[in-house]
Specification:
mainly beta; 5-stranded mixed beta sheet; 5% helix; 46% strand
Length: 81
């Protein structure tokens, strides 16, 4: 699938850091693919954290991701857990 803007929300914001929540039927290896969140690049900063409900169409799982880069509109996440 692809990034869906309505599934992204801010949980907390402080001192230039944002904690995001995202829900998707995609698997974690799709979510942390470079470019998945490019449509939201103007809102996302390096160091932001994503809590994600992933694989919602199957046995639901959760993931924790760090924004590792956001350069020239290309957003990359690294899965932490």
């Amino acid at each position: 699938m692809a990034y869906v803007a309505k599934n992204l929300s801010v949980l907390a914001y402080a001192n230039g850091f944002t904690l995001w929540h995202y829900t998707t039927p995609d698997v974690s290896t799709t979510v942390d693919t470079a470019g998945y969140f490019n449509a939201a690049a103007d809102m996302i900063r390096v160091g932001d954290i994503f809590l994600a409900n992933i694989e919602t169409g199957r046995a639901a799982k959760a993931g924790l991701f760090l924004v590792s880069s956001n350069a020239a509109g290309v957003v990359s996440l690294k899965q932490l857990v």
